[in-house]
Design brief:
Layout lengths: L10 H15 L5 H29 L1 H9 L1 H7 L10 E5 L4 E6 L8 H4 L4 H4 L1 H9 L1 H7 L9 E6 L5 E5 L11 H7 L2 H5 L9
Parallel strand pairs: 1-4, 2-3
Helix pairs in contact: 2-3, 2-9, 3-4, 7-8
Length: about 200
């Protein structure tokens, strides 16, 4: 005899579900309206915006210079900004330097260009280890950085947030800006991933 099993959320997920149920019961929120909003920030608004910023930096040297000099202003040129995107600094990966972003105090994060922060970014384990053992953290994400490459860890705060401009993959010279943006991941803009050309 087969049974239908239901996975019951725990911890924060359970609290979110309880709060959502109360708000729905009181008629303050329509659950059908929440999913598209979360999807928008998680998959469409943030990471896609950042990917477009990176692709433009790869293809437009004048924009890249403006981005590295004044990330907030350069990103506003593309129509992105807002309270969580103010005081933004762009740091660039090179063959000799790999950048990694963390917020050791909480989870300061540039929502307009990266979307919602991933759960691991807010975890104590990531926040503490990224500073102490950045190579170990990167290895946990499947990223091996050669020993002769310096790893710089940037600590975000309410006053200053960071976006990593990853290295452009080889053999992408003929790709358009839109095609390049498809290669860029949220993780590569935090520094825990690398951008790879599609096969």
């Amino acid at each position: 005899m087969s049974r239908n099993h239901v996975t019951v959320p725990t911890g924060a997920a359970l609290r979110v579900k309880a709060l959502e149920a109360i708000l729905e019961e009181k008629g303050l929120v329509d659950p059908a309206a929440l999913d598209p909003i979360v999807d928008q920030y998680e998959n469409k608004v943030g990471p896609r915006n950042g990917a477009r910023v990176v692709a433009k930096a790869w293809t437009d040297s004048a924009f890249r210079k403006r981005l590295l000099d004044d990330a907030t202003g350069a990103i506003e040129e593309l129509g992105y900004g807002g309270p969580e995107g103010g005081y933004l600094v762009a740091v660039e990966n090179t063959p000799k330097v790999h950048n990694l972003v963390v917020c050791t105090l909480c989870s300061c994060y540039p929502w307009p260009v990266l979307g919602l922060p991933p759960v691991w970014y807010k975890s104590f384990a990531y926040r503490s280890r990224a500073v102490r053992d950045p190579r170990g953290v990167l290895k946990d994400f499947g990223v091996e950085i050669p020993a002769d490459v310096e790893i710089r860890v940037w600590d975000s705060s309410a006053e200053q947030r960071y976006i990593v401009i990853p290295m452009r993959p080889k053999n992408t010279e003929g790709m358009s800006e839109a095609q390049l943006a498809e290669l860029v991941t949220r993780d590569s803009m935090i520094g825990v991933g690398l951008v790879k050309a599609q096969a």
